[in-house]
Amino acid sequence: MSFESSIEWTDSTWNPVRGCTKISPGCKHCYACTFAERFQGVKGHPYEEGFKLRLVPEKLAEPLKWGSSRMVFVNSMSDLFHKDVPDAYIQRVVEVMATANWHTFQLLTKRAERMRDLLAGPLKKFADLPHIWWGVSVENKKHGLPRLQALRKATASMRFLSIEPLLEDLGSFDLQGISWVIVGGESGPGARPLLADWVRNIQEQCKNQQVAFFFKQWGGRNKKKAGRLLDGRTFDEFPRVVKNKPPHSMVRHEHIQNLEARSLVSIQL
Q1: How many Cβ atoms sit within 10 Å of the Cβ of residue 4?
Q2: Residues 238-267 pLDDT 10s
Q3: Sign (positive/negative) of CA torsion 226, 231, 233, 236?
Q4: DSSP 3-state of 72
Q5: How far, in Å, CA of 221 to CA of 245, rounded?
Q6: CA distances from 70 to 16, 97, 181, 238, 242 (A)
Q7: Extents of the domains making up the chain
Q8: Which single residue of 133, 165, 229, 253 could bond 158 by disulfide (Cβ 3.0 to 4.6 Å)?
Q9: Are strands 12-14 and 3-4 parallel, antiparallel or unpaired?
């Protein structure tokens, strides 16, 4: 099953990997984990196994089937650069993104060092593709800002930050080489607070450093009620999107056949 996303900064989600493990304070109330565990044991459900990490090779061809251009959030329910995802499988996922260049792919990770290293190695030929956006999650100074530093050292044409959930004031930091910053508060039961001055600090730095700024939400237990206005306005800025015309259905079908012919589905954990 594929998903049209309710996430404000994307159109669709694509999950060729499912499940993950928590590695930092930003993971404490992981929405993906909460969702997946709700369906653990439900026969036939995509998350019948809960949040256990697993490859989903049958999902690899999904973006090639979509005939209209979309913003695609890659692995909203996992982390492609998790240590247990084989390098070869990561490369196959990125090869699909490279082929499906009529979409814009938004790839987000908390494993910034591994992404940086792969972009300098097996993924190097994909690093400068303008329709693939490479991003890291940032939640605080201790865990998040080092990911920013790793991202800035990565060879990539388009880098972005998802500062959500923002858990503290980040102070001043260098946004050189970053094209887009998303900020948001945590939502749901037990949501940790987000202070307006923390958000204003980031928005002001983005403005001064000419970086697109997107404020997603205040969060809280009722995120719809809290809304997403900052000082009376919404911030929906995006970096420049490179749009390519979708190919004819016959061409897309050929791409899918080529994918299947290469036996990509044989890669397993």
Answers
A1: 9
A2: 999 988 999 999 999 999 998 888 754 454
A3: negative
A4: strand
A5: 41
A6: 17, 12, 20, 14, 11
A7: 3-244+251-261
A8: 133
A9: antiparallel
Cβ neighbors of 2 (< 8 A, separation 6 or more) are 12, 13, 14, 62
Contact (CB, 8 A) for 259 and 64: yes
In whole angstroms, give the CA distance from residue 245 to residue 148: 32
- Rg (alpha carbons) of the chain, rounded to whole number: 18
Which helix (H) or strand (E) segment holds residue 183: the answer is: strand 180-184
Give me 52's structure tokens: 């256990």
**Tens-digit pLDDT profile for residues 3-39:** 578 899 999 999 999 999 999 999 999 999 999 999 9
Give which of 73, 217, 78 is closest to 132, Cα–Cα.
73
Return phi, psi of residue 123, to 5°.
-100, 5
Q: What is the CATH number of domain 3-244+251-261?
A: 3.20.20
